[in-house]
Amino acid sequence: MVDRLVNSEANARRIAMVENCFGSSGQPLAEQGRVLVGEGVLTKMCRKKPKARQFFLFNDILVYGNIVINKKKYNKQHVIPLEEVKLESLKDEGQYRNGWLIRTASKSFAVYAATATEKEEWMAHIEKCIEDLLRKSGKQPPSEHAAVWVPDNEAAICMHCKKTQFTVLNRRHHCRKCGSVVCGPCSSKRWVLRGQSDKPLRVCLQCYDDLTRERARVPPLAQPAAHTPHTAAGSGGDSSADDDSDDDDDRAPADHSHDEPKFYGDGEKTEETNNHSSKETK
Fold it and tell me: In what residue span(s) does the FYVE-type domain sit (predicted)?
């Protein structure tokens, strides 16, 4: 399916439209051999609350962004190489249904489709793209992935000490190793986590102890430079600020209508070919 669409005019137009919708806030997406496989709206579990995000599945990357004007303008573009992605289905729990995890070494998060059928379609298409990429490159799928952050509203107190209540003054922080919501004193340590950043990131005391013990078991010459402990609590150079660009307030008004995702396949390509042939005949 993907190979047939590589050089199609329809594919080139679709990619150009995606680029236009992101405008100057996005990066160029047109590359030799790149195909737009599908697109649609998914609900992404952000730090503060679930939010609608526009997703574009290409044969080598997954792109998503904030919806400014539905089908016309998006911003906050994120590009994820599919070779780094691992999917994990989620069980339905209360209002959170038809979800799965998108896991990478640098960031992991949950998304939810409107229906079980759409979930199956999304996951099947993403898995197929990942499988094709790994087969062609000969690479192995990544073995380590970033933790999924626990949403703020699921933790009224620190998940480490079980005592500190979060208020305007006692802010929530996230451990970059396990994803737990913790207070400042319980996340005063820093550690460079391979795959997430070259700078020290905030970790909870439990993870810091675990990382320290793990480091002690590894011979010095075999220790990766990425796992260097830091205790720069209160440092002005804290690189692990808990701000998430994905949590910025949406500018678009709430739109309760639902459009099914579009996946571009052989049928559409055949139709385009027939139309092109008929024009030549004329």
Answer: 152-212
d(CA 212, CA 273): 61
CA atoms of 67 and 44, how far apart (whole Å) = 12
Cβ atoms of residues 127 and 169 within 8 Å: no
Q: What is the pTM of this model?
A: 0.80
DSSP for the chain, written as a single string: -HHHHTT-HHHHHHHHHHHHHHGGGS-----TT--EEEEEEEEEE-SSSEEEEEEEEESSEEEEEEEEETTTEEEEEEEEEGGG-EEEE---BTTB-SEEEEE-SS-EEEEE-SSHHHHHHHHHHHHHHHHHHHHHH-PPPPS--PPBPPPGGG-SB-TTTS-PBP-SSS--EE-TTT--EE-SGGG-EEE--TTT-SS-EEE-HHHHHHHHHHHHHS-GGG--TT--EE--TT-TT-S-----GGGSPP-SPP-------EE--HHHHHHHHHHHHHHHH-
**What Rg, from alpha-carbon coordinates, does the chain have?**
22
* Residue 65: closest CA among 15, 260, 74, 126: 74
CA distance 29 to 20: 10
What percentage of the chain carries pLDDT values higher than 70? 78
Per the structure block, which two tokens stand in for 176? Answer: 């970059």
